[in-house]
Amino acid sequence: xxxxxxxxxxxxxxxxxxxxxxxxxxxxxxxxxxxxxxxxxxxxxxxxxxxxxxxxxxxxxxxxxxxxxxxxxxxxxxxxxxxxxxxxxxxxxxxxxxxxxxxxxxxxxxxxxxxxxxxxxxxxxxxxxxxxxxxxxxxxxxxxxxxxxxxxxxxxxxxxxxxxxxxxxxxxxxxxxxxxxxxxxxxxxxxxxxxxxxxxxxxxxxxxxxxxxxxxxxxxxxxxxxxxxxxxxxxxxxxxxxxxxxxxxxxxxxxxxxxxxxxxxxxxxxxxxxxxxxxxxxxxxxxxxxxxxxxxxxxxxxxxxxxxxxxxxxxxxxxxxxxxxxxxxxxxxxxxxxxxxxxxxxxxxxx
Length: 351
Description:
Elements: H1 6-9, E1 17-22, H2 25-29, H3 44-67, E2 73-78, E3 83-91, E4 96-111, H4 115-118, E5 133-147, E6 154-164, E7 173-183, H5 189-206, H6 210-221, E8 223-224, E9 229-230, E10 235-241, H7 246-258, H8 260-271, H9 278-297, H10 300-307, H11 312-315, H12 336-345
Antiparallel strand pairs: 1-2, 2-3, 3-4, 4-5, 5-6, 6-7, 7-10, 8-9
Helix pairs in contact: 3-7, 3-8, 5-7, 5-8
């Protein structure tokens, strides 16, 4: 599932209020834990939070260094009822027009009906009393980065962990989900081979079938159905991971999050100084428009969050600073833009 925070993904009203704002990212990211006071540090809840907090700190530091000018604005917020989050957003950097890395750790009670949004594969018993609630815990990290240069791709990732406590009508459940995907405006095969190859290597470490499955699931999820094209060039996407030992699932998500910098920043470094034309910039803005279309029309987390009063700034952190909708653009046959459209309509194998 795309988008910035688990609270938003669930459509829960975070009642998010900023309790701190600072340009000192290191200080903000070293705040105390967000999990419920007294939670054993050895629980999966605490371990996953440590993982995503570390990933946020390391990725923000690497992106600031690569940008060479932009700094992340950092907001921390609390959720009435339990938990909170840290949103780090860079805007108008030298390399990135907009980049965000958000963490949320929330808990409390949620409608049983909302479990279907959290996990479409979940099977609910028939005859549940209307308004039934279930205790839950959800933690996640999510990011979207939109560069200035049309030769530099946009990148998105999201990794999350979810638990429900047992009730009279439902057993307790847990699962992991997430993924990382890339959205260029122009195809550079060696870049896509590097990006996909990085994640294939991570997948192969755990299961040789993972990459092919998660790559296909990513291509399916990011389909803009009304246009018959994908948002970008995919990556990996997985949901409902709970069939193996919990430590193995945590290790896989940890390795995936830790591979973001390796998979993405070398591509940015390679292309951030590339020259480009006004026509290429217009094409990038058109593809950014497709990004917005997918997120507002199809993305489960965005839709549910907006419909149910989620924290708007966290929901829309993923939106690009600029986008375009030129009328009836049909790329010239044989052009770079036409090649991109063919790959968006017919997913290719890159690793």
